[in-house]
Amino acid sequence: MDTWNFWVVGGDARQVTLARSLREDGHTVHTYALERSGDPPCPANDLSGIGEAQCVVLPLPAVKGGRLNTPLSELALTAEQVLGALSPGTLVCGGRMDETLMAQGRALGLRMADYYAREELAVANAVPTGEGTIQIAMEELPVTLHGAKALILGAGRLGKVLAQQLQGLGVKVTVAARKWSDLAWIETWGCESVRSDDLHGHLGEYDLICNTVPTLLLDRPALSELKGGCLVIDLASAPGGVDFAAAQELGVKVIWALALPGKAAPVTAGRIVRDTIYHILTEEGI
Q1: Is the distance from CB of 265 to CB of 128 less than 8 angstroms?
Q2: Residue 45 class from Cβ within 10 Å (0-12 exposed, 13-18 middle, 19+ buried)?
Q3: Order of strands, sheet of 208-211, starting from the edge strand that comes earlier in the sequence
């Protein structure tokens, strides 16, 4: 493996693990804005040496509230402060970078890559997301998952992985999807299938509903069908797939479980980011 000069700037426990993994692989690593992690590897006092970096890794999401996402730091950094200190040609890898940030970097001659947009990261992240979902369900439901009936809304990457994980625990799984091809695949997994348009009238039979679709599927009429004690876990990004106000009024317990890989398995999540960045470096010829 080639060795590279990395700077890991901001982020959460995933970035701490990422930095440690990069260093263990023999790379030169500096970290900044991670001091509240307790033991950040290779901490830098300032950004003065960042211009020598070949690759700078920003958090997931890269920016939050108009500033760089630094939950483990007292520093209030702007993305411009970091990007402006880099040398032209530097590779900048960030998660969920918006077009404004991407354009700012390109204008400075930087190579901008969004690791969150990579298919391999999305697939790999489905595993810790599914396990985190199961952890929540086991903590919140008054019944065992074995023998329970669960409905998964959506047959994408996460829906596929979660269905298999739940089946392995003895859950009776139904998956809802819109495409006929997805419905056919669902049945080959040994799950029950239902079209997303045909959910009404059948929602009252489930102990657990997991939504993976960022579209309002569980509106007030749908929520009113749920049986008492049904747990809804919304895994979709904003705006989610649940009418949260209606759920509160109806007494339906909903947990909007965002960013589960970083919460449920930050070490694994950090290694997934590391591997994805290696792929980007190879493709960029660095």
Answers
A1: yes
A2: exposed
A3: 192-195, 172-177, 149-153, 208-211, 231-234, 253-256
Establish whether the linkage from the previous residue to 239 is cis, with ω within 30° of 0: yes
CA distance 159 to 148: 17
Q: Using one digit for the tens of pLDDT, what is the confidence trace for 9-46?
A: 999 999 999 999 999 999 999 999 999 998 888 899 99
The single residue listed with the structure tokens 């979709």 is 236
Between CA 183 and CA 192 the distance in angstroms is 9
Q: What is the spatial distance between Cα 234 and Cα 132, in angstroms, rounded to a whole number? A: 12
Contacts for 261 with CB less than 8 Å, ≥ 6 apart: 14, 125, 128, 129, 132, 268, 269, 272
Q: How far apart are CA 137 and CA 224, in angstroms?
A: 21
CB 128 within 8 A of CB 270: no
Residue closest to 126 by CA, chosen among 275, 234, 269, 278: 269
What Rg do the C-alpha atoms of the chain give, in angstroms?
21
Once rounded to an integer, what is the mean pLDDT over residues 111-126?
97
pTM above 0.85, yes or no: yes
* Burial status of residue 255 (CB atoms within 10 A of its CB: 0-12, 13-18, 19 or more): middle
Instruction: Decide: 86 and 53 in contact? Cβ < 8 Å.
Output: yes
How many C-beta atoms lie closer than 10 Å to residue 172's C-beta? 18
